[in-house]
Specification:
Elements (H helix, E strand, L loop, with lengths): L2 H13 L3 H11 L2 E5 L13 E5 L4 H14 L17 E4 L18 H10 L6 E9 L9 H5 L9 H11 L3 E5 L3 E2 H5 L4 H24 L6 H9 L2 H14 L3 H15 L5 H18 L2 E5 L2 H6 L4 E6 L5 H12 L6 E5 L7 H7 L2 E4 L7 H16 L4 E2 L18 H12 L5 E10 L5 H8 L9 H8 L8 E6 L3 E2 H8 L15 H17 L6 H9 L6 E3 H14 L11 H10 L4 E3 L6 E3 L2 H14 L4 H12 L2 E2 L1 H8 L3 H8 L8 H14 L4 E3 L2 E3 L6 H10 L3 H15 L6 E2 H18 L10 H14 L3 E3 L2 E3 L2 H10 L5 H16 L6 H8 L1
Parallel strand pairs: 1-5, 2-3, 2-4, 7-13, 8-11, 8-12, 9-10, 9-11
Antiparallel strand pairs: 4-5, 4-6, 12-13, 12-14, 15-17, 16-17, 18-20, 19-20, 21-23, 22-23
């Protein structure tokens, strides 16, 4: 036995008479905040003895383990267990090589040597090893600090005095992580005893290291030390020297400015603040929300130990900043460093967010080379050290509820940083956050109507606090499929490694937008349904924002069936969903002699568009197929494919849908089969037909098709405005503004209060899709096209019924009338 093993055995024997008393005292004080997995889920073999393995010698950890095992009916480690025993359950700790300041002989790989010898003498016996990691509080490692000296577990090893203090301070904040049971005999595999001992110890150490990295994150430098280190980097020193020379100022003065930039940017993560925020937010969520549901986090836990994680959530609310960090902390993952706009670095709020992990950046620093260099150096330091990071690829909160086109800034800086150092795997984690009601509903409505965004301030926060008594429903946090950056680059740019030392490779301008679109698609792929967006999807599909309650409930149930891939279907029944939406104040339920009606007035209907847009993309293909039967009573597969296939890539691009165009025909057939199964279509020998007009199924098909109608109308108006002018005569800005004006005109003439319908960013996204698909191209800053675009518009007109077609064309006439000389495509369109 090693010297440490002998000392621990002696220590345990001296405390043996006091063990029951100490265990009772500890059991009355401690409380597990998190046990992962739940002890009941451990797949232990009752026929084999269990040996629990701790990462380091600790009497308190052993006592805690005994307490937990007794409470949950697990095999209890016996104090009588001795190395080499195959009859009792036991608990051992890996040798601690770094515990002593003076040199010592490295112990052998005890305590497994006696066990291995015993197993070789008993061929039918086996022992199951269960790694157990215990954390008494969780403090990110720092070089120094009062809290480190006081209590919480960190990367530094804990002495007996610190552990005693930690038990008092963190006794009700304990996290315990169980590893998968490992067969000791399975690790032998005909290996020599010495090699087998080394292998077992190495496997266990790697496991403990991964768990520790996942829970605590990498070591944190003190903020002053970090900023000082940034300024010593050769690249930043070079830019400081060039800036000083260009401005005719001393290098020391420019260096002081760079240091101020570093203090303005860098976070100052603090464990006491993390614990404070955890408790405050726990109370806040309980007051605000009926619950926070998390889906898919297991895949993140599998990666967190040996990957640098970059969380990329959709941005719907200021609550997003706090909610994701809270969920990760509660689930045993290190909270990320969060990129936040400098507008949030306000008095009182800014320092709190900074100590919770936020680092601040300016909206634009294109003209400030020094600031950009400091920010890039800071981001590179976080990534290379393996710290988890969070930023919003949309750039700002979505006022329309849709996924916005990703901004290239942070993605480009991340790619450039990873090119400088490819030693650690970097993985993006898409996150969808769905609300039944957001705090900013009123401000979003005001901004969509044209009002200017109000600047964030503590006074604004007080105004928000006044609304905390309102109900806000539930929140869904869904984790999308992680994206390995190296794998993405290998697919998109096979020779990317050859340009690792080029700070701005030529392929970067192509790879960054592609990466942004892929992440947006993965976020949208896990968008979750809830009662409010189901009500919005149905109610807003009606002409006058009113519907029979029974039809609404049937349509909501249909939508859930049409989306079997949703991460979590809403709990309850359609009656429950309707009651939830009414309780949150989005609808009015009005009793009527012939049956209950559900209505939404103008302001409520406008608010509901935000929630509809959260998930509208999930029904894009079924809605497109249903819309195709609005003007044609029956269709065959070839006709549907010819009419819908050209439009699908544009819809998928605009709404960030993952279905590739190459699979469209197969997806179309599957959707038709699905609609037939739900009774919305009827099969014929030569294709499919819609139900008779007087049936409920026909009405449901109409409601489903109306979901895609606004997207098709916007596309029609944009193409009509473009084709009304000769090729190469309109700039992108001109076309976006003309299209926005036409869409606004359509809503006013239709009597609708829908400012999000003519949001200019929607037309910008549609233009991006047309450019990506090659329908249009830019020539000297102007948009060019050929006759194929006019032919495509002519074919798409067959989707619209004559009344809608005539109305759209009348709306589009002002754009044609402004043209001094329309091109041949536009003239042919007027004639069709």
């Amino acid at each position: 036995m090693s010297r440490i093993g002998i000392r621990m055995a002696l220590f345990s024997s001296l405390l043996s008479p006091l063990r029951p008393l100490l265990r009772r005292l500890l059991a009355g004080w401690v409380e597990l905040r998190l046990s992962e997995p739940a002890p009941e889920r451990l797949a232990l073999d009752p026929e084999r003895p269990t040996l629990y393995v701790l990462p380091r010698p600790s009497f308190s950890d052993r006592l805690l383990l005994e307490i937990v095992c007794r409470r949950h009916g697990l095999p209890v480690p016996s104090p009588r267990w001795r190395p080499g025993s195959l009859r009792h359950n036991g608990c051992v700790a890996l040798p601690d090589y770094k515990r002593h300041r003076w040199p010592r002989r490295r112990p052998d790989h005890a305590p497994f040597a006696p066990l291995i010898d015993a197993l070789r003498e008993a061929p039918d016996a086996d022992v199951q090893l269960v790694p157990v990691s215990v954390f008494w509080g969780r403090a990110p490692g720092k070089e120094f600090g009062f809290w480190k000296l006081l209590a919480a577990d960190s990367w530094q090893l804990t002495g007996r005095l610190r552990r005693a203090v930690s038990i008092l301070v963190n006794g009700r904040n304990i996290e315990l992580y169980w590893g998968e049971p490992v067969s000791l005999r399975g690790q032998l595999a005909e290996r020599p005893p010495e090699l087998a001992r080394r292998r077992i110890a190495r496997v266990l150490r790697v496991h403990f290291r991964r768990i520790r990295t996942r829970v605590l994150g990498p070591d944190l430098s003190h903020r002053r030390t970090l900023i000082h280190g940034l300024l010593q980097e050769p690249e930043l020193q070079r830019i400081i020297a060039e800036t000083a020379q260009a401005r005719g100022q001393s290098q020391r003065r420019i260096e002081r400015r760079a240091r101020r930039y570093g203090r303005e940017i860098a976070s100052h993560m603090s464990y006491p603040i993390l614990r404070l925020l955890d408790r405050l937010l726990h109370r806040l969520w309980n007051r605000l929300y009926a619950g926070v549901d998390v889906h898919g986090l297991e895949r993140v836990k599998q990666l967190a130990g040996d990957h640098t994680l970059i969380y990329v959530p959709c941005h719907r609310s200021h609550i997003d900043y706090l909610l994701l960090s809270y969920v990760l902390f509660r689930e045993g993952l290190m909270p990320p460093h969060i990129a936040a706009g400098r507008n949030l670095d306000m008095p009182l709020i800014g320092p709190l967010l900074r100590r919770g992990g936020a680092f601040f950046l300016r909206r634009s620093f294109r003209d400030n080379r020094l600031y950009g260099a400091v920010f890039n150096a800071y981001l590179h330091r976080l990534l290379t050290r393996g710290h988890p990071i969070e930023y919003f690829i949309e750039g700002g909160r979505s006022r329309s509820g849709r996924m916005l086109t990703p901004r290239p800034g942070m993605l480009a800086m991340t790619l450039r940083s990873c090119l400088r150092d490819t030693s650690r795997a970097v993985t993006f984690v898409p996150v969808y956050i769905g609300y039944e009601k957001v705090l900013e509903s009123t401000s979003y409505l005001r901004e969509l109507r044209g009002a200017r965004k109000r600047k964030e301030s503590p006074l604004g926060l007080l105004r928000v606090l006044g609304r905390l008594r309102q109900p806000f429903g539930r929140v869904q946090v869904a984790i999308g499929e992680p994206l390995d950056l190296n794998a993405f680059l290998t697919r998109s740019v096979p020779d990317w490694r050859e340009s690792r030392h080029d700070p701005r490779p030529s392929w970067l301008t192509r790879a960054v937008p592609e990466l942004g679109r892929e992440l947006a698609r993965r976020i949208n792929a896990v968008a979750t349904l809830n009662p409010v967006n189901l009500v919005a999807l149905t109610l807003l599909a009606t002409p006058h924002r009113a519907i029979e309650a029974e039809l609404l409930k049937r349509q909501m149930a249909l939508l859930v069936v049409l989306d079997p891939d949703t991460p979590s279907p809403p709990a309850g029944t359609p009656d429950d969903w309707l009651a939830e939406a009414a309780g949150l104040g989005f609808i009015e339920r009005r009793a009527q002699a012939l049956g209950e009606l559900v209505l939404a007035d103008g302001e409520r209907a406008t608010l509901l568009t935000w929630y509809r847009n959260n998930v509208q993309h999930r029904f894009a293909l079924p809605a497109l197929v249903a819309f195709a039967f609005r003007n044609s009573a029956h269709n065959d597969l070839a006709t549907l494919d010819a009419r819908l296939a050209p439009a699908w890539p544009l819809i998928a691009q605009e709404q960030f849908i993952a279905l590739p165009a190459a699979d469209f025909r197969n997806a179309l057939e599957a959707t038709l089969t699905q609609l037939v199964e739900q009774g919305l279509l009827e099969t014929r020998a030569d294709g499919w037909q819609r139900p008779p007009g007087h049936t409920l199924a026909h009405e449901q098909l109409q409601l489903l098709g109306s979901l895609i109608q606004p997207t098709l109308e916007r596309g029609f108006l944009l193409l009509a405005a473009l084709l009304a002018q000769p090729s190469g005569s309109l700039t992108r800005d001109d076309l976006e503004e003309r299209s926005r004006g036409l869409a606004e005109r359509l809503t006013l003439l239709s009597g609708l209060n829908a400012p999000e319908f003519f949001d200019r960013r929607l037309f910008s996204g549609l233009l991006d899709a047309l450019l990506a698909e090659g329908w249009i191209w830019e020539t000297e800053g102007h948009l060019a096209f050929d006759a194929l675009l006019g032919e495509a518009l002519a074919r798409s007109r067959s989707l619209f019924d004559p009344t809608l077609r005539r109305r759209l064309w009348q709306i589009a006439q002002p754009a044609a009338g402004d043209a001094p000389s329309a091109g041949p495509q536009a003239r042919s369109e007027r004639c069709t």
